[in-house]
Each structure stands twice: as structure tokens, then as C-alpha cells.
Amino acid sequence: MSSPNVLEVEHLCVDYVSAQGLVHVVDDVSMQLRRGEVHGLVGESGCGKSTLARSLLRVLGPPAVISRGSVKLEGDDLMAMSASQLDQVRWVRMAIVFQGAIDALNPVLKIEEQLIDALAAHGLGDRAQAHDKAAKLVDRVSLPRRVLTSYPHELSGGMRQRVVIAMALALGPQVLLMDEPTTALDVVVQAEILDELDRLRRDMGFSVLLVSHDLPLMLERCDRISVMYAGRIVESGPVADFREKAHALGHPYAKHLLDSFPKLDGPRTIGRGLPGSPPSLFSPPPGCRFHPRCPSVMPICSKEQPVLTPLGVDHLAACHLNTTPQ
Length: 326
Ligand code: SF4
Description:
The chain is built from ten helices and twelve strands. By secondary structure, the protein is of the alpha/beta class. The strands form two sheets. An eight-stranded mixed β-sheet has the order 6-7-8-3-9-10-12-11, sandwiched between helices. Strands 2-1-4-5 form a four-stranded antiparallel β-sheet.
């Protein structure tokens, strides 16, 4: 029987080399992406989630260094691949969509030229065939054909992001990494694009790793969620568990992240922000990295690093509250 996981990450570490030494931005992260699921990777800015997502496809340049770990796509370890082997994976089997579509598109080329260039780079037929394919790609993401003859600056932010999604899906990848793909868009356009993505995912069967700082959005759009804090995954589980058990179980950071967003239904409550800020990754606190901000901190928390332990079916959290008798 084939594995339920399309992507398996084991003990991944990513460092940034700086004049002050190494900064461990992703620290021993293990996670799985199931076939056909949307997996949310959530956390405050600077927690390492974008670095993690980009390292999966090895698109990070210096000063980032992947210092340890494996990333297996259908069993093939991307970390062990040569540059030419990786070329057969990027776009073909795994693609990425970045936050700023305007930065991902060439400002002096019409959209059609950019789509054709990308298709030609992967040997997808002659120019006439690539032209037909480019037209089908804009149809696929519900854009009008006039987009093909437009320059990026002539399109709205939402249209540009749809173009980038069309490019990413051009070769039918099994995995789509989406790094804050709708953060720069207004909420209406954001919802339209995420609805479109959901339709495409059901039609094409790819899996999505969706990176965002917006936990309520993740609860609405994902099947499972992993919460990152200071370079580590501190909680991971099915979205239903986060909705139903967020105030009874789990990691205090995830609970506070949820509490810091206003709710649209139920009784009116005063939002509670999370005091303090994430630690510097140059010198993170010992033990649990959340302990200087945690309202439930215990003596053990500053001494021992908690490990991910099961809280329920498919639900893990790294917190001493779950393993220390109260
Ligand atoms: Fe808070 Fe301790 Fe749990 Fe860390 S391990 S989240 S400091 S209770």
C-alpha cells in the first residue's frame, strides 16, 4: 500500500550564516503532507515558516544553509538531489507561489510570453502548442484571455496572483507550496482566490502547504495545521481539534494566537494580544522557547525542551503541561 504522505520532512535544520555566527531559523522540524490535503503552517512573523517552506524546494540562496535533514517527495530525497535532478522536480512535481506576484513576474514581458517561456523551459512543445497551453492556463484560473497580452502592471493584484498560480500549476505538480499567497490582497479577493484554489485542488488532486500568520484563515481553509514558534513546530493536528479543543488542550502559544483574533460570531469579547515578542534566534531562551511569554510557565519549562507528544489522534503538542503531572 502506498504511503498516505506525499511529502515527508525529517529533522530539517536551516541556518543563516551571519557575521555574529549561525542563526538556527528552522530547528529540527519534522512534518508530513498527506495526499490531497491542505496543510497550514502558521506562526508570527519571523518564526521560520517561510524559510521552512522555501527550503523544501531548495530555493533559498545564501546566506541560508540547509544543515541537516531530509525532504522526501514520494520517497525521493530532495536534499540528496543534484541541480539537474532538482530541475526535474521544481514545477514538474512540486511548485511554489510566493506572496508578491509582482516580484515573481517580469515587468517588461507580456503574460503570454512569460507563460510560454516557462513552458518552453520544460520542453512542452513548440511555440504554437505553448501558446494554446498558455490560453488554457488563464482559462483554468478564470482569467479573461486579454490577460495574455497584458503586462503585469496592467493587472490587479488578484489577477497577478492568479497568473502566478496558473504558472505554478502548468505542469500538474503533486505539491503546491504557497507562501502567504493572499496576504497582500483585500479579503474579498483573498476569498475568491482561495475558493479558486480549492476548486483546482479538487480537480487536479494536488496537495497544498499553505503558509500564513492568519490562524482563523487556516482554520477555515485547511485540513491540518502545524504551528511554528521560534523555528520549531510546537503543535500539529487536524483543524477540527484546533477548533474544538483550542481552549482545553494543546500548546498555550496556539491558544493565545487564536485569542488574539477578533471573532465574528458569539458573544462580544475583548481581544487579548499576546504580550512580548518572539525571541531572537541568535540566542533563543533555554528549554521551551515560549517560556518568557507563557502564562502557564512552570520551573521545568526554562530547563528542559519539551518534545512533541501525542494529545489525540494525529495531534501532537510540545508542552510540559501535557506531560507533567499537575
Ligand atoms: Fe508554557 Fe511550559 Fe508549555 Fe512552554 S512548556 S508552553 S513554557 S507551559
